[in-house]
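The records we work with from here on pair a chain with its fold. Here is one such record, which you should read through line by line:
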Amino acid sequence: MTKRRMWRLLALLFAFSLVAAACGGGDDDADDGGAGETETETTAAASEDEAMEEEMEEDEDEGATGALGGAAAEEDIEAAVAGETEEEEMTEEEMAEEEMAEEEMMFDRSTLEGIFDEAAARRAKAVATLTEKIEAGEYGVGDDGILRGPADFEIDMSSCPDDWSDTTGITDSQVRIGHTTAQSGNLAAYGNIAHGWENYFNWINENDPIMVGGSARDLTLIVKDDAYVAAQTIEFVDELIEAENVFSILTLGSPNTLAVYDKINEECIPHPFVMTGHPAWGDPVNHPWTTIMQMSYSTESILWGAWIKENLGDLLPVKVAGLVMDNDFGLAYELGFEEWAHANSDVVSEYLPVRHDPAAPTLTNEMTTILAFEPDVFISMTAGNPCLLAIQEAGQSGLYDDINAKGGALFTPSVCKGIEAYMKPAGDSADNWWIIGGGSKDSTDPKFVDEPFMSFVNANLEAGGLDPAVSLYAIGYTYGYPYGEALRIAADLPGGLNRTNFILAVRSIDVYHPMLLDGIVTQLNGNADAYFVEGSDFSQFDATVQTWNQVGEVVDVNGKSTNCAWDKDDGGCR
């Protein structure tokens, strides 16, 4: 049972006592943001109280973390937002090691050559560390059939299929990588990421190929369009495994990935840097082959709340409305912010989540409901084209003017930071919207277009026949870059490129990511740190200049997010 459900049970007890006293009808579903949850009928308040206390004690023993699992502690995030973080004390040995590491990594990031030199140095350092551990018998597959890695990371290889191979997907000429994504349907724009990813791999193949056994291998992307339909994702993943014989798999979408990540892990297939920020991907114990790339939606939920607390003091407590995509993706946002709001009633007096069909052609009805609620803060908890529709509807309905007139705020989600796709088409209605941006750079933003790596990206896209004005193509480099670095590290380990070396490289990766803002740390560390990005910018959109203006410092809580064993039935992390 999650904390969220406990709150509802407590609310039901109170409601039933009112019904008994006044014989009135209560709206038990008014705050029901869950999907498929049922409430336990209460027959005796006293016995129910005792049962709940026992269940709460059991949950504490089991380590329940609620919907906000997969994020750093609320106090750590709020302190970072308020600029009150304290440096952890280090031993003299740790300080010496850090100073040495900084000296080793002094490269000129203002040039493409400097960025590539730093990448090579970081890879060499990773290879040296992992090789030493492998040769000492601390890492790698032991005689007991256990694959071991950093920070107690383990995989029991005896549970893999009998016909499993460490080198499946690696041919004499290729490394075959499978990808399911949406290239049709309401979220088809995200399918452009695959084109950008393939464009980066093509550059690698032509200019600096992955070497396996002394010879080059082309990185070959095998893309399946699931139209953001989970049933299609299941079929295509089966096809990628059984017919395409891929080395690894990348999926896009929370409901799609939730539908297949058990199967992919049972098949012992690397599944890193998935294209969704659902907290469930931070589960190295139960799903060791799957890792997350972008900032967790749980962290984003807390950052929304922390921003409101820090910046809207004159309006507190505020009424918050959320436009929620009605699927597992939207539910992660809804549950996360609901849990934060319940715990911070002095900041949020009321929270109204309004769900919408992912395939809805308009959002007029949903936005009319939100307008009638008269919120002080509006948060778009959706993705794809609905992000644009939400901004447009907020402007047309008067919600945008009402919230700005009272000094409130409107937020679009981190997954909709693209200027050309989501902000520019909305015109003046996009002005002054806020975003917890996850630290990503937009390749069309005037502030970044002349940076060396961004110039490199846009030149490659153009050379490959892709329009650099479509920033989602460049997001393919955001995902492709760490993927490529991990492949290179694995190829240089004892035994060369194989699945076990690749997952070891992924679980210990520490790179400078040129597609992210300075101050965002990008690394993983076995079971101890399962989230690649744990920080974000706070940015506000300027529709005149068509740019996101960062407000304040980047907030980063690297290494502090709790792991998340996602409860598919009730939602939340265990």
